[in-house]
């Protein structure tokens, strides 16, 4: 691309690697995880591979990167994450990372529902438990799966802390678009774990070069909306 489109490369490099990066208030690990999560969300495979090389070069833990891809599966689906996992494995091996990585599971088949439901309640309040008993009958299956799979299988894993998991989840919704209700819920979830308005604004800013202005501005409006309700 440097040969065929040098002006384009200059524009995007100056903007994404200099101008927006210089405005960043996140840690470098947080910034890289957000960008990788956003590229998963918008299915930007080529740039995902470029940024994964960059993340490994600056020392981002491969476990944290793998956990980001694993958790994306709950929000993007197997069909949109498996190719990214395969690509990541190849890049990690190029960087001398020995695979498989150490296991990160902290629960088992018998405990995953209770642990996952407890994590839902911790993040989003007691109404999450009521969905298991008071929710519509036709949603009984998916409400249980949200507890045992989405939260029990992923959120209980080691390798990322609660702030990091909510942050990357925000990025999955931010980048794929069409998930504004879920973005509202996880904006509140981020506030609950200590990722405040200023930090979420910085998250959006660092993802914006990779996902564009419309989704970024929509997300900022949602952050403002939820912050106003929290007062």
Question: Which helices and strands occur, and which strands form pairs?
Answer:
Elements: H1 6-22, H2 28-42, H3 45-57, H4 62-76, H5 78-94, H6 112-124, H7 127-134, H8 140-155, H9 162-176, H10 180-193, H11 197-211, H12 213-230
Helix pairs in contact: 1-11, 2-3, 2-4, 2-9, 2-11, 3-5, 4-5, 4-8, 4-9, 6-8, 9-10, 9-11, 10-12, 11-12
Question: Measured on Cα atoms, how large is the radius of gyration?
Answer: 18 Å
**Average residue-wise pLDDT:** 96
The helix-and-strand class reads mainly alpha
Helix content: over 70%
Major beta-sheet overview? none
Strand content: under 5%
**Unreliable sequence segments:** none
Q: What is the total tally of β strands?
A: 0
| Contiguous helical run count | 12
| Through-space gap between termini | 48 Å
Shape: globular
**SSE string, helix = H, strand = E?**
HHHHHHHHHHHH
Describe the structure.
By secondary structure, the protein is mostly helical. Helices cover about 75% and strands about 0% of the residues. Helix 4 runs antiparallel to helix 5 and helix 9 (about 160-175) runs antiparallel to helix 10 (about 180-195). The protein is globular.
Labels describing this entry:
231 residues, single chain, mainly alpha
Describe the structure concisely for a colleague.
The chain has helices at 6-22, 28-42, 45-57, 62-76, 78-94, 112-124, 127-134, 140-155, 162-176, 180-193, 197-211, 213-230. It is built from twelve helices and no strands. It is globular and about 60 Å long.
